[in-house]
Amino acid sequence: MHPMLSSTAAALCVFSILLVPLAVAGLALIYSGLGRSRSAAHTMMASLCVMAVAAVVYFICGFAWQGYGSLPGHAIAFRGKPWNWISTGHYFLRGLALDGSPASLAAWLGMLSVGLAAIIPLGSGAERWKLRACCASTVVLAGWTYPLFAHWVWGGGWLAQLGADYGLGRGFVDAGGASAIQAVGGLTALSIAWILGPRRGKYAAGGMPAALPGHNVVLVLVGCLVALPGWTGLNAAGSLLFLGIEPSRVAVVAINTLLAASAGALAAAGMTLSRFGKPDASLTANGWVSGLVAGSAGCALVTPLAAAFIGLVAGALATLSVEWFEARLGVDDPGGAVSVHAVAGIWGVMAVGLFARAAQGGAGQWLAQLVGVATLLGFVFPLTYGLNRLLNRFYPYRVEPEGERQGMDLYELGAGAYPEFITHTDEFTLG
Amino acid sequence: MRLAGFLISVAGWTIVLTAVVLFSLPALRTGFVLAGVAVEALGWVLVIRSHLGTRRGAA
């Protein structure tokens, strides 16, 4: 469903899209703070470069393949039903009327959303992923993986049509991008973590992980607060453009977004408090973001109470999953990107099928959401892993051992994030 | 083993798609979609085991 927007809805949509870069800024601050100080500038620089590469690549071909519901697409017919799998035309946005129409706003939102998806893998590859390799990987994500899946969900593709063609509720629903942005980014983050391998010193010979604490928890927590308006804008714009909600429903979207994040943070804080005796700040931040991620899929379709529950479960899931990935699966993910974006994103998508059932078509909606999750796990992950593995073969992603020892700031950028920061050891010995 | 895991995951996904296209009875369709997801899970187990094996080899 891709309706024309009223002037109020269009104005609200423009305002909401203007907020979206704050989500990117928030994630960049979080990843920078969760890494060590010797790679802090590199993480911020990589975030900016990746955002820029993603926007340019999406402008060149990304939107052409993602498309929008009102634009034509390639379809294959199975048993008389069309399976629209990719959009056609509008390379370099040529021929697209940039006049505030829903398609033009979707293109603008897409240029920012793809940047958000592309910086998620920086969280798992921090402190060992070359800057040029980050950019090369972003070309693949912004030019192929993201537009393909986003077309299926938001561009009138086959997932969105599961309702009309096969009677599965209203088809696959994801208003704010829990799947198309977050899970796609999170699964790419897992691919990157596996391809790069762990940081030096992360695992002892027996496989026991060592704690490599982030250098600035203040940055992490400020990043959480900065991300909130960005996510609210993303959810509101997505709901207006892709679900066709009335402008008055934006208040519900904003409240649900805040409640999901808050419940996620409280769940993580409570769990770490009960397990370790003190709340863990970085895991609480992860809980906050996982609430934002999970809440975005059904932000316009569920009640505030359901949104809080979705966030609560997401916060708990992310907290457990960070430990599981690190200790049991040997995945070194300094920013918790896999747990926060892939695991919480998938939970958020399934939660739409559970909590929006009465209004959205019963068990059929749940099945449509399950088909979407199966597509992420059975198609998107092998695709993104294979493409990154291939790129890694031509241009190795991992920095040389000297770069890791020296820190990415000095090795790749030639200057540290904190050049005037000097540790005075005598402060701790005198007096 | 990793490649086999990925191929099994993709095979699971095709079972899911086939179930959506071929079956119209809700119970049958749901059953086959769940079976496809289970096959995907099997593929993921293989991929994860392969990753853990590589890690132990490196250590």
Give a description of the structure.
The complex is a heterodimer of chains A (431) and B (59). Chain A is mostly helical. Chain A has a two-stranded antiparallel sheet. Chain A is 67% helix and 3% strand. The model of chain A has no long low-confidence stretch (mean pLDDT 93). Chain A has 16 helices and two strands. Chain A has helices at 7-19, 21-34, 40-66, 102-124, 131-154, 162-166, 178-196, 217-243, 250-276, 281-297, 304-328, 337-355, 357-360, 363-394, 401-406, 408-413; strands spanning 73-78, 81-87. Chain A starts with 6 loop residues before the first helix and ends in an 18-residue tail after the last helix. In chain A, strand 1 (73-78) and strand 2 (81-87) form a beta hairpin. Chain B is mainly α and 59 residues long. Chain B is built from two helices and no strands. Chain B has helices at 2-22, 26-58. The longest helix of chain B is centred in the last third of the chain and has 33 residues, at 26-58. Chain B is elongated and about 50 Å long. The model of chain B has no long low-confidence stretch (mean pLDDT 92). The chains are: A mainly alpha (431), B mainly alpha (59). The A-B interface holds A 78-79, 81, 162, 166, 168, 194, 197, 203, 205-207, 329-330, 363-364, 367, 370-371, 373-375, 377-379, 381-382, 385-386 and B 6, 9-10, 12-14, 16-17, 20-22, 26, 29-30, 33-34, 36-37, 40, 43-44, 48, 51-52, 55-56, 58-59.
Gist?
The complex is a heterodimer of chains A (431) and B (59). Chain A has 16 helices and two strands.
> Quick one: overall form of chain B?
elongated
Q: Helix segment count of chain A?
A: 16
Q: What distance separates the N and C termini of chain B? A: 19 Å
Structural class of chain B: mainly alpha
Structure class of chain A: mainly alpha
Walk across the major sheet of chain A and give the strand order.
1-2
Write the H/E string of chain B, N to C.
Answer: HH
DSSP E strands of chain A, number: 2
Indicate the proportion of strand residues of chain B: under 5%
